[in-house]
Amino acid sequence: MKNLLLILALAASLIGCATPPPAPPQHTTLFRPGEYGSKYYRIPALVTTTQGTLLAVADRRIESQGDLPNAIDLVLRRSTDNGASWSEPITIARHTEETGYGDAAVVADRTTGEVVCIFASGCGLWASTAEQPLDIEVARSNDDGLTWSAPTRITPQIYGPECPAPAVDSLSGLFAASGRALQLADGGLLFVVAAHRTGDKWPPLRNYVCRSDDGGHTWHLLPAEASHCGDESKIIELADGSWLMSIRNPDMGYRRYTLSHDKGASWSEVGEWRDLPDPACNGDLLRYSLRSEGARRDRLLHSIPADTAERRNVSVALSYDEGKTWPVRKTVWDCPSGYSSLTRLADGSIGLLTEVGDWDTGFEIRFTRLTMEWLTDGADDGR
Questions:
Q1: For residue 358, is it within any domain?
Q2: 97 in a structural domain
Q3: Share of the chain above pLDDT 70, in %
Q4: What is the CB neighbour count within 10 angstroms for residue 199?
């Protein structure tokens, strides 16, 4: 009897000491069709400022779900408590009778504290020509996303008839891939463009990199073509200083990638990640941690619909070997879902902003806060 009581007591103590399961993801819908004076929303972009504030950016597509040249505003909501609560919408750029603004790529400058937002305006990619190209513009915030400068047109710095010394000949249209832009360790800012040339049959689109070395005031297009078989693409700096580009696959199937070991002067042959499905959709690529900055492991995160043909099951994948393999992947949205954007929150958790829905129902823009423990089923605490 005593032995039985001891066994029962030991079992009870073990149960009491058992590690609780990781907290599940927390979801908040930030934009719904029909809210805030707009029938539709699309194109999420998410960034954490140097003050730890979350900025969730989206296209407010007033009357149509389609791209430019439709009436589109760029709007955001702010959170100063890691996504627990959110501000009312703030307008970055409001459409006029002449132009709309869409497809934002956002980056927080560690050096200045400013937030830089790069986006398209004007005729739209499909109508863009070498003579009358789609415009690229920049807006800036120096107060943590509360207010924004008027858009500044940077098209003449990059391409088109007003560009005095184009790095690439015959470009007839390009736009910045929406979501995250990148700040390098040396302070430079990068964003990837998807472009077509005069005479191209597209898709696919060509990929190039734009760089700024003065905090996003001036930009230049790097002449090396990273891919001729791509579309919206994201870029990250690896631990050894190389650049890794994740490329939307217009043929569907699996995500494509390429590497540069010379700061964009040349690129490797394009490969495929067979452990990252891609239904021809925009996704995001995020540096989560670096051993050189005190973390126990180098970690990259990638968000993408986990399907080879349909935009559904947006998931987050984890790499421990600088993007060579993606052994961990977990579905966040088990339903129709498309574009997504990632950021690391001030408390170390992971922020995900996703289009949830489809073309028939319209898209909701939803924020998710998740943890490294949940992503890895408790195997990794993210430190």
A1: yes
A2: yes
A3: 95
A4: 7
- Identify whether the C-beta of residue 181 lies closer than 8 Å to the C-beta of residue 192: no
Residue type, 320: Y
Separation between Cα atoms, residue 39 and residue 62, nearest integer Å: 5
Residue at 183 is within a domain: yes
Alpha carbon distance 347, 226 (integer Å): 35
- Structural tokens at position 309: 């043909």
What are the start-end ranges of the H helices in the chain? Answer: 2-17, 155-158, 372-375
> Does the structure show a pLDDT above 80 at 301?
yes
DSSP 249: -
Mind listing the pLDDT tens digit for each residue in 118-130? 999 999 999 999 9
**Domain coverage including residue 273:** 26-375
Residue with tokens 């995250």: 180
- CA dihedral (223, 229, 235, 237) in degrees, to 10, reads -70
CA quadruple 261, 238, 158, 102: dihedral positive or negative? positive
- Supply the pLDDT for residue 18: 62
The alpha carbon of residue 126 and the mean position of all alpha carbons in its chain are separated, in whole angstroms, by: 22
Q: Are 52 and 87 in contact (CB under 8 A)?
A: no
Number of domains comprising the chain: 1
Mean of per-residue pLDDT scores for the chain: 95
| CATH code: domain of residue 232 | 2.120.10.10
In a domain, 91, yes or no: yes
Confidence class for position 3, pLDDT limits 50, 70, 90 = low
> Other CB atoms closer than 10 Å to residue 98's CB: what's the count?
8
